[in-house]
């Protein structure tokens, strides 16, 4: 509400506060809650929001953090800063067919700054920034809620007044401790939502500042309106939802600045009522401001569209099954069911999961499904709230309910599947901004109950209990986000039908070397989703390593049949076929993998091994050379080239390749060892010795390193050192091939020398 200050001699701020507060019902009047000065209220909110998520500060990189941060080349100093503006959130070119089109360059820039300041991928700095951002946003919410719940009024000195200090504190606390925010705060990729929310709120507060000097209801600052549009653009460059603040600013202008009755306005527009001319739309500049907001939003969207390209993002059926349903009815029913589940997560955030796709929520395919009732409940509540927001005679009630519904629904629209297909079923991170609307509605409901309740303190204690439960739930959920093992296992009880959950648990176990347990989870993932090609590929890999080649081949063959362009599965199938000595099929599989992934150094490496087994030495060398061109640090490919050239007597060429490899990978002890062998055969004993010793220093427990150095000393005539290293080699590996025979030869030679000397 705008205060019309005609008396320049208002006695003081307190009197002005009371006079303006009487203009409409005060939400705080009947609420039994803490009344704190603004500074202390913000301190309390900051402290409690910090306590909720503090235990996530030293967590690992988990789930999507690997792709968005560790594997994202845009974070590294060698990547030009300009590339950030042409790449998506994951570091892929926006023009690529595989890009998800998530354009968030400012978020990636903050990751890059984190990486550069930390000097590497150390997660603590990333987590600390996320916690600070959430605390900052929660503090800003005190001001935002004071405007949304109490109205917009200023003192004579242009200072904004907080007409709802108690309810704004309660709403800010509800926001600060909501467990559904854990994914955004404890998961580092949630930085996108946090930065978006920060600039989203700053845009709203900036828009409110446009009316600070408003005396007669028609003066406003164009500068602050434009600042609000720019901040909205910055919010969108952090995450796509940010653009929705421009729509919310327009809603706020209509309801709070102009105090328009939306239902009456619609009726007059429908009936072309001439009284519209007296509605004050032009006098108060509403149409001009709406035009500025719409023009700014349209310009931002156009620029983003030009950068992103016209192609839609590529998602699969497992990401969002409902969006691939042939029936419009099935799609509509399931979308609405997803909305109801999002609403339930806001109301009761107890069952939280890092991923809700892949069968976690089975599709509703007929009206006989009992879950239809949930949709009916959702729309019954929404329609009831909308009717009250439009038709209530209480203007205060209309304003708060409309703003609450606006902040609940409008920021959620980009994730609603209404305008374009999204790559998820439910994502807790996208509820971060809509939870503002939930907090408004919850707080307003609490004020209404307080007005009716005789024992207001009991009601206040109940709400305080909800806050304390949420704090504990946040702390527990934050601890689950500290490591992938805890995060993935926590999802098993929430989404037991989610194949991706079982896949991730299996992958985590496999990475830790527990293959037997990993097989169990991979099999369950394939059972739940018989088309889950990544689970088939990983399971096939483990079975291949366990020499269960027949089943491995069946799984990998099925994977490439389901997804013919799955390059990794084609390569692994080639490895299995090679092990089964079906060389022609293996070669064909390798080339198919390379066809679908042009830059595939590991596949060229395996192709080289196949050619080496077939004694096609030139082809093998060419394949390994391709691998090193695509990946200069591919140690195995360099080693195999050196060894093959050594074994075929091309010592000069082997030496040249070895020196080239060590220039690129100077600390690789296996390359030192291979080159040392070549130099020894070329009778460059001194240089060979230096490389052997350097390799042994890097890996002192390698029996072959000591054994081959002993052979070098044996040839060189340094028999005592040869004897020493033979003995070390045999101690490390008593069954080392050839070493025992060479050692026995040396001993006999030493005995003969002793006899001659005697």
TrEMBL record:
<feature type="transmembrane region" description="Helical">
    <location>
        <begin position="430"/>
        <end position="449"/>
    </location>
</feature>
<feature type="transmembrane region" description="Helical">
    <location>
        <begin position="458"/>
        <end position="476"/>
    </location>
</feature>
<feature type="domain" description="DUF1736">
    <location>
        <begin position="311"/>
        <end position="383"/>
    </location>
</feature>
<keyword id="KW-0808">Transferase</keyword>
<feature type="transmembrane region" description="Helical">
    <location>
        <begin position="39"/>
        <end position="57"/>
    </location>
</feature>
<feature type="repeat" description="TPR">
    <location>
        <begin position="499"/>
        <end position="532"/>
    </location>
</feature>
<dbReference type="Pfam" id="PF13432">
    <property type="entry name" value="TPR_16"/>
</dbReference>
<feature type="repeat" description="TPR">
    <location>
        <begin position="703"/>
        <end position="736"/>
    </location>
</feature>
<dbReference type="InterPro" id="IPR019734">
    <property type="entry name" value="TPR_rpt"/>
</dbReference>
<dbReference type="InterPro" id="IPR052346">
    <property type="entry name" value="O-mannosyl-transferase_TMTC"/>
</dbReference>
<comment type="pathway">
    <text>Protein modification; protein glycosylation.</text>
</comment>
<keyword id="KW-1133">Transmembrane helix</keyword>
<feature type="transmembrane region" description="Helical">
    <location>
        <begin position="403"/>
        <end position="424"/>
    </location>
</feature>
<keyword id="KW-0802">TPR repeat</keyword>
<dbReference type="GO" id="GO:0016020">
    <property type="term" value="C:membrane"/>
</dbReference>
<dbReference type="InterPro" id="IPR011990">
    <property type="entry name" value="TPR-like_helical_dom_sf"/>
</dbReference>
<feature type="repeat" description="TPR">
    <location>
        <begin position="601"/>
        <end position="634"/>
    </location>
</feature>
<dbReference type="GO" id="GO:0030968">
    <property type="term" value="P:endoplasmic reticulum unfolded protein response"/>
</dbReference>
<feature type="transmembrane region" description="Helical">
    <location>
        <begin position="188"/>
        <end position="208"/>
    </location>
</feature>
<feature type="repeat" description="TPR">
    <location>
        <begin position="533"/>
        <end position="566"/>
    </location>
</feature>
<dbReference type="Pfam" id="PF14559">
    <property type="entry name" value="TPR_19"/>
</dbReference>
<dbReference type="GO" id="GO:0005783">
    <property type="term" value="C:endoplasmic reticulum"/>
</dbReference>
<keyword id="KW-0472">Membrane</keyword>
<dbReference type="GO" id="GO:0004169">
    <property type="term" value="F:dolichyl-phosphate-mannose-protein mannosyltransferase activity"/>
</dbReference>
<feature type="transmembrane region" description="Helical">
    <location>
        <begin position="220"/>
        <end position="237"/>
    </location>
</feature>
<feature type="transmembrane region" description="Helical">
    <location>
        <begin position="372"/>
        <end position="391"/>
    </location>
</feature>
<feature type="transmembrane region" description="Helical">
    <location>
        <begin position="243"/>
        <end position="266"/>
    </location>
</feature>
<feature type="transmembrane region" description="Helical">
    <location>
        <begin position="131"/>
        <end position="151"/>
    </location>
</feature>
<dbReference type="Pfam" id="PF08409">
    <property type="entry name" value="TMTC_DUF1736"/>
</dbReference>
<feature type="transmembrane region" description="Helical">
    <location>
        <begin position="286"/>
        <end position="305"/>
    </location>
</feature>
<protein>
    <recommendedName>
        <fullName>dolichyl-phosphate-mannose--protein mannosyltransferase</fullName>
        <ecNumber>2.4.1.109</ecNumber>
    </recommendedName>
</protein>
<comment type="similarity">
    <text>Belongs to the TMTC family.</text>
</comment>
<dbReference type="InterPro" id="IPR013618">
    <property type="entry name" value="TMTC_DUF1736"/>
</dbReference>
<feature type="transmembrane region" description="Helical">
    <location>
        <begin position="163"/>
        <end position="182"/>
    </location>
</feature>
<keyword id="KW-0256">Endoplasmic reticulum</keyword>
<keyword id="KW-0812">Transmembrane</keyword>
<keyword id="KW-0677">Repeat</keyword>
